[in-house]
TrEMBL record, chain A:
Matches recorded under Gene3D superfamilies: putative rabgap domain of human tbc1 domain family member 14 like domains, Ypt/Rab-GAP domain of gyp1p, domain 3
Taxonomic source organism: Entomortierella parvispora
Cellular localisation: Cytoplasm, Cytoskeleton
SMART domains: TBC (SM00164)
Rab-GAP TBC domain location: 438-629
Top-level taxon in the UniProt lineage: Eukaryota
Name of this protein: Cell cycle arrest protein BUB2
Region Disordered, annotated ranges: 84-141, 183-242, 254-319
Annotated Basic and acidic residues bias: 202-226
Compositional bias annotation for Polar residues: 90-99, 286-297
GO BP: any one term: negative regulation of cell cycle process
Automatic annotation (TrEMBL), chain B:
Superkingdom: Eukaryota
PANTHER family: DRAB11-RELATED
Location, primary (coarse class): membrane
Keywords: GTP-binding, Lipoprotein, Membrane, Nucleotide-binding, Prenylation
Gene Ontology cellular-component terms listed: cytoplasmic vesicle; endomembrane system
Cell location: Endomembrane system
GO molecular function: GTP binding; GTPase activity
Alphabetized InterPro entries for the sequence: P-loop_NTPase (IPR027417), Rab_GTPases_membrane_traffic (IPR050209), Small_GTP-bd (IPR005225), Small_GTPase (IPR001806)
Membrane topology: Lipid-anchor
NCBIfam families: small_GTP (TIGR00231)
Family: Belongs to the small GTPase superfamily. Rab family.
Protein name, entry field: Ras-related protein Rab-11A
Amino acid sequence: MSPHSHLSPLDNSILLLDSTTATDGAFVPHSSDLPTSTEPQVALDHRRLSNRIQKLIRIPLSVSQTHSRMGSIRLGLGGRAEKRRLAAVTSPSTPSLASPDSGKVGSKTAVAGTTAAAEAATPYPADNSTTRSSAALPADSVQQEIEYDDDNSSTNREGFTVALSLFAKVKARVLNSTLHPVSSKISTSSNNSGSSSGADSGTHEGSRRLDRRGSKDASRGSRDEDSVGSLPGIAVGNSSDADLLSQGVTATRAPLSSAKPTPPPLLHSDSGQADSGHIDIHHPNDQSSIHTDSTSCHDPMDGQDIANDSESTVTDLDESASRLRLQKYVFEDGPEAIAVLDANGSMTTPQDNSTLQVVPTSEGTDAATQTAPSAAVSLPLTVVEDEAQDPLQLFQEVLTRRHQTEDEIADSLHDLRRLILAYGIPTEPAAEKTPGARSKPSIRAKCWKLLLEVHHVSAQEYVSLVKQGKPEEYGKIRNDTFRTMATDKKFLDVVEEDSLIRVLCAFSWSTQATSYDESGVSFTYVQGMNVLAAPFLYTMAEMDAFYSYSNFIKQCCPLYVQPTLDGVHCGIKLLEECLCKIDPELYDYLKSKRMSAELYAFPSVLTICACTPPLDQVMQLWDFLLSWGIHLNIICIIAQLHSIRNELMSHASPMRLLRIFPDLDADRIIGETIRMVKLLPDELYDLLVRHPYDPSVVEQISW
Amino acid sequence: MSKEDEYDYLFKVVLIGDSGVGKSNLVSRFTRNEFNLESKSTIGVEFTTRSIQVDAKTIKAQIWDTAGQERYRAITSAYYRGAVGALLVYDISKHQTYENVGRWLKELRDHADTNIVIMLVGNKSDLRHLRAVPTDEAKQFAAENGLSFIETSALDSSNVELSFQRILTEIYRTVSNKALENSGDGIRPTGGETINVAAQSADGTNAAGKCC
């Protein structure tokens, strides 16, 4: 392996941002900018830290909103990828945006400017209403928002590291169940990142890595989206962001909507049927055909009728659609978003105790064009200090937010990631089962779809894919489906083999139909894909599972399922490299026993640990991996080795132990993974991040 | 050190053949006397061991079970390295799996040691009513290609033990003959590394303590 990793310009910029954010003095705010913090560095106990985290998570979006407008000023140019890149590069030099002496007058100017810029940067005239609506906000609220911005924007970035380290620390604490008082510095704005000391910076390093992946996601995301745009399968056409935003789950909800497009819905319309404004502009005729009846829509392979299934799925989606509407689209996670989020240092300022006024947005404005007020404005800034919050509520809060800009979406997505890291996706109270009706999509299902950027779910498209019948690989697929998770009773209870067959066949058709990737990545059925599809079907309805699975394969780990399994081999190589760095003793020992990772880790690498029971732990591990990058799976495998390290080292033939991995303990593995990640040198980590999707890594690692 | 870890010879045997012909169940029947109708499909490579006695020698078989799909053949060079025996399995009820035997043979010739002992195994002999490959035809094919042949059923366990016994014995004979020959002219190229280990350990001091 080459010691020097190749970094694309994009990667570089991200690194640059990271390091700059962490250390650059440019981020030390002008003293007059500092909110007068009344909160000294305090020792907090565990619970209090948790509250902190909740605060971190409940960042008011107004900050991000303002921030994003500033982003528009700075950049005000076209392509999103380019914008991102530029944002990453230029943001270190922009703290002056919140110039120390800018009073309210300055702020107002900024608002005017930013609004204009936002409009200018909005590539689609149709959505101007969104922007205008913010401009149309009552002056007071704008004022308040800006005040807030003035006070805090410059502190946003240096809160960054602190927040991250804090966050990782709390997570570690949660994992270790350490209830001892923590004498950590909870840095408010007066602490710049440089003051994170020793142990802190270690943890910070860990989470920074995690975040780095997040950033890469973002840049990849935009690129992917471009390529996806050319897919008939995932038809977003050349639609701009606005189209994406306005489309919603379009085709899926079409059956319940009237054929005639109607204006966008009013605020908070959680009743899905009301949202009839989202007609899939690419498939205007879908609506008629989607309404499937049992004769027109059946599985050509088994003769099995999927009409009921898809219909109920449609309903599910429709219900959730309105709730998820604006979160679905451009979930890019950018460096900016990270920085913004960490502005929560500012949450400790006196100002935070006031609730930002809820804006009576819609009144007196044109109802037809009025969009929902951003959650940013309507969310109270205050956070309940001492009441431990139910993670379920926190998730619900993030999942029901509404967004107007990409950055808000990115912020929310980032919040979601953090929530998942801090609490894991909570188990919901079991919904009462009404016969015939499918239960609502779970929080996990929603989260996975968001994390995988599933913007587009079309019953019509899915049905037409299934209708194509048996693909070339049908025999292979059938050969594996009945054996998928065959030892897991829970899985067999929940997932029918037929739906697995349909998903795999539909994926096969959808990838055949398109010359997908310019990099020559193509897809065919490979043993193991059945196992990769299984968690999705276990978690969500069939159509959701199909689209999530498709995005997962295409975006997260395309190289893992190549005919030559390049990505997997690469991952195995990297696993050994990483093990060598993390635990040289164990590495040497296994090597002395001639135990190559190819022997013991192959299944876990290829299936992203889905082959190791129990399934509910797999789910939790996947929550983490889908949030922070599936490359971390490699480290998770090392964490599993680590958990039986003593036995391995003392056992005469360790292969016997490793033939079957110990049952998964997701919490423990995640904790270990976070700890281990920081032990890796940068260039190795960079390879690790890219290996599931970047062919150049495969070329780079020779064997 | 458990008794299990002591052996005179260690032979690496690979199982190959199309996906779904019952390789994993053959192995589990042989090593653990288990059969699972609903076994999971093999991902990548799994391996396990079992020791048997031949001529008062303990022979430890290290059995490598691999996913049958051709997509996995990329990993085969590591897979075949050091293998001294191969069970080439097909399903007597699926003719396609028999037709592919030729391709698997080529695979072996390309990647494995030339002296590898190969046994053609027609599995699922319990499915008599579904038989698609006549025994005689397969037997003749085996003879033409210098393979030994057996039909097995991992489900009712008929011939499973016998098949492994046979191939391990055959390997043992080959190896000990070769060891003799080697001691004669001494300059013959060695086979896979497992053969070397076994041959060296044949001098009375066993190889106990080495890894599986």
